[in-house]
Amino acid sequence: MNYADIILPLPLQDSYTYSIPPAMQTAIGVGQRVEVSFGKSKMMIGIVLNLHDSKPTGYAVKPIERLIDSAPIVTTDQLALWQWVATYYVCPLGDVMNAALPSSLKDDSYRPRTETYVTLAGYLDPTKVGIVLNYL
User: Fold this and answer.
1) Rounded to a whole number, what is the largest CA-CA distance in the chain?
2) In this predicted model, what pLDDT tens digit does every residue of 52-104 receive, in sequence order?
3) I want to staple 31 with a disulfide (CB 3.0 to 4.6 A). Which of 35, 66, 74, 119 is the partner?
4) What residues does each domain of the chain span?
């Protein structure tokens, strides 16, 4: 497969077709998140809807920039449900994607929670740390 239809989180009626770089040919699959360029310089995260060999006409095909997930985060049954919802409610597929996905999966800025710890290493004798902590 040389091309992928990508659902973008925009109120657009159709998905957009992007070319699949040779390095991603074996790794990409339906339901995975990818990063693509949209417009002149904006980067967006979308979901792979379909893989095919039909080159689109009417616009220059851009390549997929990056494959975010190693496994699909959306199943084909979920994608079929999204398409049914978009048809039934006469709304764009990108709006259905926005409603269906948790916010942490819509962008690449998700970072797990971390905690900061302060240690007294190197300043005190390890046997006397308990004494110092009792005074705090």
Assistant:
1) 75
2) 999 888 888 999 999 998 899 999 999 999 999 999 999 999 999 999 998 87
3) 74
4) 3-106
